[in-house]
Amino acid sequence: MSKQSKNPKAAETVSIDLDAEFRDSNIREVLEKLDKELIGLKPVKTRIHEIAALLLVDRVRKQLELTAGAPSLHMCFTGNPGTGKTTVASRMSEILHRLGYVREGHLVSVTRDDLVGQYIGHTAPKTKEVIKKAMGGVLFIDEAYYLYKPENERDYGAESIEILLQTMENNRDDLVVILAGYKDRMDKFFQSNPGMRSRIAHHVDFPDYGADELVAIARLMLAGQNYRFSPEGEAAFGEYIRLRMKLEYFANARSVRNALDRARLRQANRLFTGAKKALTSTDLMTIEAEDIRASRVFLEGEPDEVPAGDAQQGP
Known about the structure:
The chain has helices at 3-6, 18-25, 28-37, 42-63, 85-98, 112-115, 123-134, 157-170, 183-192, 194-199, 211-224, 231-244, 253-273, 281-285, 289-293, 296-299, and strands at 75-79, 107-110, 138-142, 176-181, 202-206, 228-229, 286-287. With 315 residues, the chain is an alpha/beta fold. The chain has a five-stranded parallel β-sheet, with helices on both faces. A two-stranded parallel sheet has the order 6-7. The longest helix is centred in the N-terminal third of the chain and has 22 residues, at 42-63.
């Protein structure tokens, strides 16, 4: 019997400085980093702050022997591509590590191909090897619904799911699993796999970005590579984003990154073929409107990027 059980009122005479616990945990810098590196996503950031607060308070409760059993930490992140799910998963792994809920705090990101084999006897060792790598940290499974393909009798995804379920239940103190994907498909996945649904404690939905937020993300991405828009270039990119959002395979920040990669190619070609050969750092850094407006989005009304991720896969 614990001290708390012997003397129920003993803990009432002890006080703990929660602010000091917060400072000592060093999770403040992780939360601040999350706020700085991700534009918008207020409901997501609020939920991550709430989870961090819950875990911090749980740790303090343990110090006073106010145990309530190990909290379930497995999560599901839902939303469209390019909404920051992998980035948030990485920061979540840091928070869990700093609060002592996982030993190492590393993130292992996988998809179905990393877990499921193509013949009998292949799936179990693949799944167990991934789990072994992720132990002590966070296993992030993107497009998790592709693990379950009931229409294919020769599919081995169900075997991988069964191994994951056992690990999620038996190793809750050494591994956190985060499932991710489109919300509607994850809902169907959970309907078909109630055992998986029952093990997920936290559901976080990632909203799409607005056009102004995507332009701000573009500025942040460019700054990280020592580039910047000219005023005319930024205005053109704002127009580009509003047009691109209406077309197929739009993937939020992922589409922004792809667009900027192509803009840099056009800028380099413009500088190389232009008459001006003595270039300043400003010339080399600046993305102009013509680097944006050469996109097929303006010229043909079509996306000029190759579909990636879910956009290429069937239901």
